[in-house]
Design a protein that fits this description.
seven-stranded mixed β-sheet; alpha/beta; binds zinc ion; 2 domains; 5 helices; Metallo-beta-lactamase, Chain A; two-stranded antiparallel ribbon; 18% helix
Length: 223
Protein backbone atom coordinates (compact mmCIF):
# COMPACT_ATOMS: atom_id res chain seq x y z
CA UNK A 1 0.00 0.00 0.00
CA UNK A 2 1.29 3.47 -0.87
CA UNK A 3 0.38 6.00 1.73
CA UNK A 4 2.05 9.24 2.72
CA UNK A 5 2.07 10.88 6.12
CA UNK A 6 0.24 14.02 4.99
CA UNK A 7 -2.62 11.91 3.64
CA UNK A 8 -2.62 9.64 6.68
CA UNK A 9 -2.85 12.64 8.99
CA UNK A 10 -5.59 14.24 6.90
CA UNK A 11 -7.67 11.05 6.79
CA UNK A 12 -7.82 9.77 10.37
CA UNK A 13 -10.51 7.22 9.49
CA UNK A 14 -7.81 5.14 7.79
CA UNK A 15 -5.91 4.31 10.94
CA UNK A 16 -5.74 0.54 10.65
CA UNK A 17 -2.05 -0.43 10.71
CA UNK A 18 -0.73 -1.63 7.38
CA UNK A 19 1.34 -4.79 7.12
CA UNK A 20 4.34 -3.88 4.98
CA UNK A 21 6.34 -6.44 3.04
CA UNK A 22 9.39 -4.20 3.27
CA UNK A 23 10.49 -1.40 5.57
CA UNK A 24 8.52 1.76 4.70
CA UNK A 25 10.35 4.34 2.61
CA UNK A 26 10.66 7.71 4.28
CA UNK A 27 10.93 10.59 1.84
CA UNK A 28 11.66 13.83 3.64
CA UNK A 29 9.66 16.66 2.08
CA UNK A 30 12.25 19.29 2.89
CA UNK A 31 15.22 17.18 1.82
CA UNK A 32 14.40 15.67 -1.52
CA UNK A 33 16.96 13.22 -2.88
CA UNK A 34 16.99 10.10 -5.07
CA UNK A 35 16.52 6.78 -3.32
CA UNK A 36 17.99 3.54 -4.63
CA UNK A 37 16.09 0.59 -3.22
CA UNK A 38 18.30 -2.08 -4.83
CA UNK A 39 20.34 -2.68 -1.72
CA UNK A 40 19.39 -3.70 1.80
CA UNK A 41 17.00 -3.52 3.52
CA UNK A 42 14.70 -3.42 0.48
CA UNK A 43 16.36 -5.38 -2.29
CA UNK A 44 13.94 -4.02 -4.88
CA UNK A 45 15.52 -2.99 -8.22
CA UNK A 46 13.96 0.47 -8.23
CA UNK A 47 15.32 4.00 -8.02
CA UNK A 48 12.93 6.75 -6.94
CA UNK A 49 13.70 10.39 -7.64
CA UNK A 50 11.09 12.66 -6.08
CA UNK A 51 10.68 16.34 -6.86
CA UNK A 52 8.69 19.12 -5.30
CA UNK A 53 5.34 19.63 -7.00
CA UNK A 54 3.24 22.80 -6.94
CA UNK A 55 -0.16 22.00 -5.51
CA UNK A 56 -2.57 23.89 -3.29
CA UNK A 57 -1.37 25.59 -0.10
CA UNK A 58 -3.08 22.95 2.06
CA UNK A 59 -0.68 20.36 0.61
CA UNK A 60 2.65 22.16 0.96
CA UNK A 61 4.70 18.95 0.67
CA UNK A 62 3.21 17.71 -2.59
CA UNK A 63 5.72 15.63 -4.54
CA UNK A 64 5.91 14.08 -7.96
CA UNK A 65 8.47 11.44 -8.79
CA UNK A 66 10.39 9.49 -11.37
CA UNK A 67 10.54 5.74 -10.74
CA UNK A 68 13.22 3.82 -12.61
CA UNK A 69 12.97 0.05 -12.89
CA UNK A 70 16.50 -1.34 -12.96
CA UNK A 71 18.02 -4.49 -14.42
CA UNK A 72 20.46 -6.74 -12.56
CA UNK A 73 23.39 -4.50 -13.52
CA UNK A 74 21.60 -1.46 -12.13
CA UNK A 75 20.83 0.04 -15.55
CA UNK A 76 17.46 1.70 -16.14
CA UNK A 77 15.01 -0.49 -18.05
CA UNK A 78 11.94 1.66 -17.63
CA UNK A 79 11.75 5.29 -16.62
CA UNK A 80 8.32 6.11 -15.33
CA UNK A 81 7.28 9.67 -14.52
CA UNK A 82 4.44 10.61 -12.21
CA UNK A 83 3.29 14.20 -11.84
CA UNK A 84 0.97 13.63 -8.87
CA UNK A 85 -1.23 16.69 -8.25
CA UNK A 86 0.56 19.77 -9.47
CA UNK A 87 0.04 22.78 -11.65
CA UNK A 88 2.37 23.24 -14.59
CA UNK A 89 5.69 24.92 -13.81
CA UNK A 90 8.79 25.27 -15.97
CA UNK A 91 10.95 22.73 -14.14
CA UNK A 92 8.24 20.07 -14.31
CA UNK A 93 9.21 19.05 -17.83
CA UNK A 94 12.87 18.97 -16.77
CA UNK A 95 12.11 16.58 -13.92
CA UNK A 96 10.05 14.35 -16.20
CA UNK A 97 12.10 14.41 -19.39
CA UNK A 98 13.12 11.15 -21.11
CA UNK A 99 10.38 9.11 -19.44
CA UNK A 100 9.21 6.01 -21.28
CA UNK A 101 5.87 6.26 -19.53
CA UNK A 102 4.48 9.50 -18.14
CA UNK A 103 1.47 9.53 -15.84
CA UNK A 104 -0.17 12.94 -15.57
CA UNK A 105 -3.00 14.13 -13.32
CA UNK A 106 -5.18 16.42 -15.39
CA UNK A 107 -8.15 17.23 -13.10
CA UNK A 108 -11.18 19.10 -14.42
CA UNK A 109 -10.27 21.68 -17.08
CA UNK A 110 -11.79 25.11 -16.59
CA UNK A 111 -14.01 26.70 -19.22
CA UNK A 112 -11.36 29.40 -19.67
CA UNK A 113 -8.75 26.77 -20.48
CA UNK A 114 -10.92 25.15 -23.10
CA UNK A 115 -11.47 28.53 -24.77
CA UNK A 116 -7.91 29.85 -24.65
CA UNK A 117 -4.65 28.05 -25.36
CA UNK A 118 -2.73 30.43 -23.11
CA UNK A 119 -4.91 29.91 -20.04
CA UNK A 120 -3.34 27.70 -17.35
CA UNK A 121 -4.94 26.12 -14.31
CA UNK A 122 -4.03 26.71 -10.69
CA UNK A 123 -3.07 23.73 -8.49
CA UNK A 124 -3.59 21.14 -11.25
CA UNK A 125 -2.19 20.55 -14.73
CA UNK A 126 -5.58 21.00 -16.33
CA UNK A 127 -5.99 20.67 -20.08
CA UNK A 128 -3.36 23.16 -21.19
CA UNK A 129 -0.76 22.08 -18.65
CA UNK A 130 -1.16 18.44 -19.67
CA UNK A 131 -0.79 19.31 -23.35
CA UNK A 132 2.32 21.36 -22.65
CA UNK A 133 3.87 18.62 -20.52
CA UNK A 134 3.27 15.92 -23.14
CA UNK A 135 4.58 18.19 -25.88
CA UNK A 136 7.78 18.95 -23.99
CA UNK A 137 8.45 15.46 -22.61
CA UNK A 138 7.21 13.35 -25.55
CA UNK A 139 6.96 10.07 -23.62
CA UNK A 140 6.59 6.79 -25.48
CA UNK A 141 3.36 6.30 -23.60
CA UNK A 142 1.37 9.01 -21.87
CA UNK A 143 -1.29 8.04 -19.34
CA UNK A 144 -3.79 10.63 -18.21
CA UNK A 145 -5.49 10.19 -14.88
CA UNK A 146 -7.48 12.01 -12.22
CA UNK A 147 -10.08 13.38 -14.60
CA UNK A 148 -12.29 14.29 -11.65
CA UNK A 149 -15.33 14.28 -13.96
CA UNK A 150 -17.44 16.39 -11.64
CA UNK A 151 -19.50 17.80 -14.53
CA UNK A 152 -19.25 15.26 -17.33
CA UNK A 153 -17.21 12.31 -18.52
CA UNK A 154 -14.77 14.01 -20.89
CA UNK A 155 -12.01 11.38 -20.76
CA UNK A 156 -12.01 10.46 -24.42
CA UNK A 157 -12.64 13.99 -25.71
CA UNK A 158 -9.85 15.46 -23.59
CA UNK A 159 -7.32 12.82 -24.66
CA UNK A 160 -8.28 13.36 -28.32
CA UNK A 161 -7.43 17.03 -27.84
CA UNK A 162 -4.21 16.27 -25.94
CA UNK A 163 -3.05 13.93 -28.73
CA UNK A 164 -3.86 16.45 -31.40
CA UNK A 165 -2.35 19.51 -29.72
CA UNK A 166 0.73 17.86 -28.19
CA UNK A 167 1.65 15.81 -31.25
CA UNK A 168 1.96 12.72 -29.04
CA UNK A 169 -0.16 9.93 -30.47
CA UNK A 170 0.41 7.34 -27.76
CA UNK A 171 -1.57 9.07 -25.04
CA UNK A 172 -4.39 7.21 -23.31
CA UNK A 173 -6.94 7.88 -20.62
CA UNK A 174 -5.89 5.64 -17.73
CA UNK A 175 -8.55 3.81 -15.80
CA UNK A 176 -9.44 0.89 -13.58
CA UNK A 177 -8.66 -2.34 -15.40
CA UNK A 178 -5.98 -0.84 -17.61
CA UNK A 179 -2.84 -2.96 -17.53
CA UNK A 180 0.51 -2.02 -19.06
CA UNK A 181 3.19 -4.54 -19.92
CA UNK A 182 6.71 -3.65 -18.83
CA UNK A 183 9.26 -2.94 -20.09
CA UNK A 184 7.68 -2.85 -23.56
CA UNK A 185 4.70 -0.60 -22.80
CA UNK A 186 2.07 -2.80 -24.46
CA UNK A 187 -1.53 -2.40 -23.34
CA UNK A 188 -3.74 -5.33 -22.36
CA UNK A 189 -6.98 -5.78 -24.26
CA UNK A 190 -9.78 -5.71 -21.68
CA UNK A 191 -11.75 -8.21 -23.80
CA UNK A 192 -9.32 -11.03 -24.66
CA UNK A 193 -6.53 -10.28 -22.20
CA UNK A 194 -3.78 -10.22 -24.84
CA UNK A 195 -1.20 -7.44 -24.76
CA UNK A 196 -0.64 -5.43 -27.90
CA UNK A 197 1.32 -2.37 -29.01
CA UNK A 198 -0.27 0.84 -27.71
CA UNK A 199 -0.79 2.15 -31.23
CA UNK A 200 -3.10 -0.77 -32.04
CA UNK A 201 -5.29 -0.34 -28.99
CA UNK A 202 -8.57 1.55 -29.31
CA UNK A 203 -10.38 2.99 -26.32
CA UNK A 204 -14.14 2.80 -26.13
CA UNK A 205 -16.37 4.78 -23.77
CA UNK A 206 -18.30 3.06 -20.98
CA UNK A 207 -21.83 1.86 -21.59
CA UNK A 208 -22.86 3.17 -18.17
CA UNK A 209 -22.24 6.68 -16.85
CA UNK A 210 -18.67 7.20 -15.64
CA UNK A 211 -18.01 3.46 -15.93
CA UNK A 212 -14.78 1.75 -16.89
CA UNK A 213 -13.28 2.36 -20.31
CA UNK A 214 -12.50 -0.57 -22.60
CA UNK A 215 -9.09 -0.99 -24.21
CA UNK A 216 -9.55 -3.14 -27.28
CA UNK A 217 -7.14 -4.95 -29.58
CA UNK A 218 -7.93 -5.14 -33.32
CA UNK A 219 -9.23 -8.74 -33.02
CA UNK A 220 -11.87 -7.75 -30.46
CA UNK A 221 -13.37 -4.87 -32.44
CA UNK A 222 -16.23 -5.30 -34.87
CA UNK A 223 -15.48 -2.86 -37.67
ZN1 LIG B 1 -8.62 -8.41 -27.68
Amino acid sequence: MVWDEDTRDAAPFMTKPVAHHHPPIMMQAGFIRPMDLSGPPWGIPIRVTPFKAKHSSDVPNAMGMVVELLDEAGATQVRLGYTADTEYFDELAVHLKDCHILIAHISQPTNEELKSSTQGKKDHLGYRGTIRLMKECRPRLGLIGEFWAGFADLRIDLVKGIRSLSGCEEVFPAGIGMNIQLPGGGIQCTECGEYGPAKQIRVSPPTDLFGNLSYLCPACQLG
